[in-house]
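Dear colleague,

Following up on yesterday's call, I've attached the two folding results inline so they're easy to grep. Please treat them as preliminary; we haven't cross-checked anything against experimental data yet. The first protein's sequence and structure tokens come first.
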Amino acid sequence: MVKQGISAREAQSLKIRESLLRACGDLLFERSIDAITINEIVQRAGVAKGSFYNHFPDKETLAATVSNLILVEVEERVRKANENVTDPAYRMVRGMCTHMQLAVSDPRRATIMLRGNDWVNAGDHQLHKSVSEDVAAGIASGRFARRCEDVGMLQIIGTGYFSMIRILDQQLSAEQAIDLATRAFSLTLCGFGLSEEEAVRIVADSARDIITG
């Protein structure tokens, strides 16, 4: 949406940028950024090719911007879902189940988010920082095994990432996604040092609350 109280030139620039973001999102839903050209993006957006470089240095930066817009919204949902939750095991699982919920309820945006930015490998992303903090808190309290210090974050985010892909590829229902989350994340929590009984209970409760919510 174009902001009020700005010059006509600024309004036009914002309009072009929004058109590029929207066009890139549409194309990302169809295929990965590697299979998309800048020519396709500007043609879909209905803008001149020169206008593209006024806003983005390359197509990868544009795709990452599109993905991040969605990811920021999901992370805000994670924050709200964990607002009164202090147990790091619950916090991590509820966070990843929030991402899985997007894959169930809005597969289009989930697909765009995954294709637009390799946030699994983006070590400086807020998602990584949040999970790392929960892992550190769990280790400090003795809840998690110390072996999780270096790889715990990779375990939980990797499990969430590939669970989202499974949901999208197989078009899983909410109930099927809950079953997937319960099996996948309980296995991860067992690796963190929790008993199988407790791990299953934590994930089953979290998945049903978040994914059906």
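Below is the second protein, in the same order (sequence, then structure):
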Amino acid sequence: MGTNGWHLRGTYLESCNCDAICPCRRIGGAAGGRSTHGVCLGALSWLIEDGRADATRLDGLGVVIVSHYDDDEPGSPWSIVLYVDERADAEQHEALEGIFLGRLPGDIVRHAPWLWKESSVLGTSAAKIEIDHTPRRQWFRVRDHVEVRVSAPVAEQPAVTCVIPGHEREGEELTVELLRVADQPPLAFEYRGVCAYASTFEYSG
């Protein structure tokens, strides 16, 4: 890629095995803490509404990360697999991999724990990604690997924010009908009724 910079804006949805409201989030202005079970297993999705890297347009593409970390492992390093929308051409794929794995400098590093902590990238691949972030009925899927379907919002929730889309952004805590990941261990799990979080995001570099 060149040196003219990059910019992404769009919608975000994640789910993990924590109980709702996820204790890792900032709740009513109070900083988050340990995950519910001490080990966090999750799936994160971004749908890019407006994006570019140099002259390469990234509009309409999706990115999904599946993740694992253990609160009691020193430094709680993340293990991740990155999926990039198979509709991306070679330049688009390179740009999205560069942004989400921190190879292209930018402010995403403030939002992505797998970039500021020690982390292991277990794999990256192009995949068929389907994302619908329509409020209150959100879902996303990576063919044969990941499926998340929202069930309902958490009732009477205080202000809840998450570092990945940004604490400066409003969001909504939800529960899921299904969180399923079928990848290599430890990224193989299935949960129902656990937490989810929806918001918008904007990163640049």
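For the second protein, one point worth flagging: Helices lie at 90-100, 113-116.

Best wishes,
A.L.
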